[in-house]
Design brief:
It is a single chain. α3 packs antiparallel against α6 and α6 packs across α7. The protein is of the alpha+beta class. The strands form four sheets. Strands 1, 2, 9, 10, 11 and 12 form a six-stranded antiparallel sheet that branches. A two-stranded parallel ribbon has the order 3-6.
Amino acid sequence: MKRGHPSQQGAALLSAMVVVALVATLASAALWQQWRQVEIETAERGRSQTQWMMTGALDWTRLILREDALSGPDKNVDHLGEPWALPVQESKLSTFLSQDQQWREGDSEVFLSGQITDAQSRMNVMNLIEDGRVSPEALARFAKLFQRLDLPAAQLAELAARLQQATARITPNATRPVSPADAPLMPQQTSQLVWLGLSADTLGVLAPHITVLPVPTPVNLNTASATVLEAMVPGLDAGGARQWVRQRERGHWATLDAARLALGPSGQGIDAKVHSVSSQFFEVRGRMRIDQVVQEELAMVQRDTGQVRMLWRVRSSTRHAADETAPTSASRALQ
């Protein structure tokens, strides 16, 4: 039997090795693609499930606010002693969500927490504009807040001027209409006030005390903080505001007249146009944690005659709880 030429044998061996390497590469690529598709599907399914659970939690909060408005002796009064004001501490939902209500090793751990905040416990930026012009009274109240928080007054002036321009852009009968190209966008959320000239540092200090609502609103005396009360009530200083809060903890005020009577001389500055004991707008914050993945949502709802509708909803980026890196997915707002 004749043997092939050594060069032919080497070429055959090399060809076989190339074929094996090519097959292994293709198999690895196929396996990686399959693994990638499984991971994408798993992540998408988890995101969808989390979104549905968060939607259910928001619907539950809307139900709480609706029932609060329709029942009870104080249905026309909102205060911090009501059920809606109690925060929900992080609670485990894994057992409740499983089909047989039994948690097994390997199942995802699901935790939910959240809180409803009275948006009218804060100073509404929209109060700065009245009939298309900057309101001197509202500007004075905000100036007092800026002074109390040691913030630059120049930024308040710019905020008021640019808010007037933004209002003129969307109001047909504005007294001083401006070109749409020059006017800033109308903000819907507190974080968007940077559009109107506030710096990030200033906004960070202001955020707990201000809000942006669709219409001008009074401040609820039953839920406002001492800082907000100090800015909103003429002649009230920091000590007097803290005393108000301590007195309020012993019992809320059912009417503005009751608040005036309880507060004595300081209560004479209470005005039904800028103060109230009830609220229509509420901020809902929810947080869901599944294993090491955290998702947060923030929504603004309006309650009117027992109906609670959502004005906007923002979902934060999903991130790993153990790795607090910068978010990678954009939030969304629903109008």
